[in-house]
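This part of the workshop introduces the protein records we will be handling. A record pairs a protein's sequence with a compact description of its fold. Comparing a sequence with its tokens is the quickest way to learn the format. To make this concrete, we reproduce a full record directly below:
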Amino acid sequence: MVGDLVPIGKQTLTPAQYSELADVPPELEWLANIPNEKTRRAYKIDVTEFSVFTGLRAPSELRTVARSHVIAWRKHLEARELSPASIRRKLSALSSLFDYLCERNAVVGNPVDGVKRPMANGNEGSTPALGDAQARRLLETPAPDTLKGVRDRAILATLLYHGIRREELCLLRVRDMQSRQGVMHFRIKGKRDKIRFVPVHVLAQRLIEEYLAMAKHGGALDRALFRPVKNNRTGTLDKHLEPGSVYRNIVQKYGRATGINAEVIGLCVHSLRATAATNALSHEADIAKVQEWLGHANVSTTRLYDRRKSKPEDSPTFHVKY
């Protein structure tokens, strides 16, 4: 009974605020309930695009959407020549919203169900991976006698030997390198705030220790592991690196310096993750272990990096003789 409840602490919601929150439309609840900021932003853009296309003016009008509207939108996206992956994502965003509305009994069905989606390449991911020689060239390029060079080599080794995402790399703190059962591990905070522990490769550990010795912040356990070496805007160096900076000032910079940019179309930070996963699988790592190592929720995502069945040297091309 409400009358039996005993108030604990100070009330923080006014009656007006309580009433407003009780009236929040489920469409807005769905968006607020997506934990990943990037996913939330992308899904908001996708649903907004659909609303503009169909002329919807309020979230509640989404409840009038029929399958024919979704099919018309898909044709519109195809006419814009968007990639199959982009169209699939946009349809997935809309489907996620309607699944939530169905759970809340706001609609009687999901109009995206039954709408054919573009075929995806289920055999191999689209992110390019480096060959062994290219990975070594990239890793050896940063200067060994400057703070930036030593830091960048440690960063490239962390990406190439552990397959972590750039956001995960940027979030690492000094204390996130910790010994477990006598072996150094990274404590990595992944998607949906899931924590996983990844053993640190011996070479990467040595390079990181060299960087910390030169940077002199190894004792700041709660501070960023990889920090800027200069900051022309504010001068603040005691902070985490920005993911965009890792792409522009490290991967792209050394990709250009080595000529790998010209050899590998679409080289990006994720390419180093793909390289690590592909290399591990090619050397007979268990795919279930690789899934856990990469932090994938589903092994089908890990299989996109499994290119053992498509080795160039096994192609019939090299059996053709004239």
Confidence is low (pLDDT under 50) at residues 1-6. The CA atoms of residues 170 and 241 lie 5 Å apart. The first strand starts at residue 177 and ends at 180. Strands lie at 177-180, 183-189, 195-199.
